Amino acid sequence: MEIFKCRYLNHENEEIIGFCLNDCKNATQYCYQCLTGIHSDHENDCIRFVTMSQYIQEYIQINNNYSMQIKEIVNQLKNCLEQLQTKMDQDIAILKNINYSFVNKEYLKFKQQINIIKTYYSKEKEKEIQQQIIDLKKYLETIKSLQLVQNQGIEQVNPGNVDKIQIKENNEENEQQQQIIIQEAKILFNQGNINYQNFHLLIDGRKR
């Protein structure tokens, strides 16, 4: 077991008893004299060896809980996108069948489905699809911003009580925003279809 010794002047050979997690300019490790001297204005941020592991375990639990929430949301989003892709494939199949009827001069059968062709001819369907792609890209950017907030939160974790409350609030806020995204995606799915080509444009945009 390694034993730290303080290197500050007049503190030589004093045993190190913990680490300071404040952003102060002093050495991170501290002895008792450091604690009552150069760290006296932020003693709550000075964590002793005997309690440091408790804080780390708490952060592990926070991340475990958050990871479980993310996995559940990812599964829901995946289901929504798979349903969207299924709808796109169905639209393609319908158009192929319509074209088959027309090419084979089955005009009565073609006439029964001509309203579908009209929605494409009037650009109504195209505009609807374009708006859906725009909305989905917005949802994607929101997810990316949540990821950025999460990464920053990990870097800025601090054991103070105020910071622990902020971590909890941030997790709850992120979960609420993600649930909103899921619900809006479901509504979008129910409102219409997205063609296969535009779906891949969305995926390509996500990779960038």
Characterise the protein shown here:
Keywords: Coiled coil. Residues 63-90 form a coiled coil. This protein has helices at 32-36, 49-103, 107-112, 114-121, 124-155, 161-191, 196-207; strands spanning 18-20, 29-30, 46-48. Strands 2-1-3 form a three-stranded antiparallel β-sheet. Helix 2 packs parallel to helix 6 and helix 5 (124-155) runs parallel beside helix 7. It folds into two domains: 1-38, no CATH class; 53-207, no CATH class. It is mainly alpha-helical and 208 residues long. The chain is built from seven helices and three strands, in the order ββαβαααααα. 72% of the residues lie in helices and 4% in strands.
Helices and strands, with pairings:
Layout: E1 18-20, E2 29-30, H1 32-36, E3 46-48, H2 49-103, H3 107-112, H4 114-121, H5 124-155, H6 161-191, H7 196-207
Antiparallel strand pairs: 1-2, 1-3
Helix pairs in contact: 2-6, 5-6, 5-7
Keywords: Coiled coil
Coiled coil: 63-90
Strand tally is 3
Spell the H/E element sequence: EEHEHHHHHH
Alpha carbon gap, first and last residue: 48 Å
Count of discrete structural domains: 2
Mean pLDDT: 78
Structural class computed from helices and strand pairing: mainly alpha
- Helical amount: over 70%
What count of helical segments does DSSP give? Answer: 7
Radius of gyration: 29 Å
Poorly predicted regions: 158-169, 192-208
Q: How much of the residues is beta strand, in percent? A: under 5%
The coarse overall form would be rod-shaped
